[in-house]
Amino acid sequence: MTVKESKECCGEEAADGPSRDEIANRIDSMLTMHSRKRDELVFRSWLLEALSVISSVAICSMTFYDFDNSESWQKASMNVLSIITVMCSLVWLRSTSKINADKHQEATRQYSKLKKELEGLEIEKRDTNDELNRINKEIAEISDIIQFTERDFIRLKQYRKRKDYYKKHIGEYLSVPYNIALFRMWKRLRREEKAKKK
After folding, report:
1. Which of 54, 105, 175, 195 is the one with CA 20 to 30 A from 1?
2. Predicted TM-score (pTM) of this structure
3. Euclidean distance between CA atoms 57 and 63, whole angstroms
4. Which DSSP string do the residues of 72-95 spell out, in sequence order?
5. Domain limits at 111?
6. Each residue of 133-187: pLDDT tens digit?
7. What is the rounded distance in angstroms from the CA atom of residue 160 to the CA atom of residue 13?
8. pLDDT confidence tier of residue 63, bands split at 50, 70 and 90
9. Could you tell me if 133 and 93 lie in one domain?
10. Do both 67 and 99 map to the same domain?
11. Same structural domain for residues 155 and 131?
């Protein structure tokens, strides 16, 4: 199941078209979500490739090993390693992670271009309804490059909201290391969410 990005990110549009802030928010959302998904897919592809290479090298190194005088568990380990190598190679060959990562990269590039263009229109005072509608149509075209599954869309939207929260409060944790600051902001966010539920 796929999700139409342009409608989900900023809800229903006004009759005369979306405002500049709505378009900017949509572009920022899609930019964050596509770049995050791209990084996940690149890492997944790299991990599969690395496992295939490492296990293949391990098997090659055992070519010179004398298995006639080895223990039974050593022979079993060789068989298990061979199976793992074949499985990783097959999964890597059939994986679409690299292809989809390239598509998300292309979407990220085009959203970045639109973001700069929108900022330029605002500076030059040319952000008219015609220009905004044109950019809005380009956003719809970019969304056709690749779409998120419903699960990914919800997860990445949550990531984007959490990222906005961290950006808002990071200035309060300048004296601590980055990872500790993230952990403290996460705990703070959890406390605020619990307080809202009461």
Report:
1. 105
2. 0.73
3. 10
4. HHHHHHHHHHHHHHHHHHHHHHH-
5. 5-148
6. 888 888 888 888 888 989 999 999 999 999 999 999 999 998 989 999 999 999 9
7. 21
8. low
9. yes
10. yes
11. no
